[in-house]
Design brief:
The protein has 204 residues and is α/β, with parallel strands linked by helices. It has helices at 6-15, 26-32, 49-56, 68-80, 114-126, 143-146, 160-165; strands at residues 39-43, 60-65, 85-89, 102-108, 128-139, 171-184, 187-199. Strand 6 (171-184) and strand 7 (187-199) form a beta hairpin. The N and C termini lie far apart (34 Å). The structure holds S-adenosylmethionine (SAM).
Length: 204
């Protein structure tokens, strides 16, 4: 959540067997499901639900997160499923991706102050090879009034416009608010996410 440092995330991961679902995020699965496997980067991967899913489809995945506890769990899940994922413990606001680039980059439910978020989106865009696809998903700002869950600080919540504005070199293929039904106190409610899919031109 917003304003939570690596130690805070470590404590959160240590307190529960599985903080997020074992399955990939539904929008990540929708956007990448039909793509041929290549090299993928998951920024702020947490326990690696998206990274592990991609690896299971044959992608060569690098997963970066600053929580050593989250990464440790991701490594354990990868070993249990006999999957090969390169997990890296690093702060994504300062991490430099390898120069040979990625065919896919995922940023899911990362919430940072605006300057830091823009820097991470710049890193995500720079990490793409020509033709590469970026999928971004996170709690939308309208979630505070019309949805459920996620951080309640508008500064760290997303809008499609804010995200696409931080990706000037990419072609935007999808930028919208999407609804995700969740169970809250035995009731089904809709969480509202920002979803952006963007590609680097195949010409570089
Ligand atoms: C809500 S979780 C989402 C995890 C994963 N993307 C998913 O969808 O399951 C947010 C993650 O962002 C990580 N995170 C937050 N700030 C970070 C930073 N500056 N550098 C690296 N990881 C960060 C946290 O450790 C946490 O694992």
């Amino acid at each position: 959540m917003a304003g939570v440092d690596a130690q805070g995330w470590d404590a959160r991961y240590a307190a529960a067997e599985m903080v997020w679902s074992a399955e990939p995020n539904r929008f990540v699965a929708e956007e990448f499901g039909g793509l041929p496997p290549g090299r993928a980067l998951d920024l702020a991967a947490g326990e690696g639900r998206n990274a592990l899913w991609l690896a299971g489809l044959g992608w060569d995945v690098t997963a970066v997160d600053f929580s050593a506890a989250g990464v440790e769990r991701g490594r354990r899940l990868a070993a249990e499923r006999s999957l090969d994922v390169e997990f890296v413990v690093a702060d994504v606001t300062a991490w430099t991706p390898p120069e040979d680039g990625f065919d896919a980059v995922v940023v899911a439910y990362l919430h940072l102050p605006p300057d830091e978020m823009a820097a991470v989106l710049g890193t995500a865009a720079a990490a793409l090879r020509p033709g590469g696809v970026l999928v971004f998903v996170g709690h939308d700002r309208t979630n505070i009034t019309d949805g459920v869950g996620g951080p309640q600080d508008p500064d760290v919540l997303h809008t499609p416009e804010k995200v696409t504005g931080a990706l000037p070199g990419l072609t935007i293929q999808r930028a919208e608010r999407v609804r995700r039904p969740v169970e809250v106190d035995g009731e089904t409610r809709d969480a509202i996410d920002t979803l952006v899919r963007a590609v680097r031109s195949p010409l570089g």
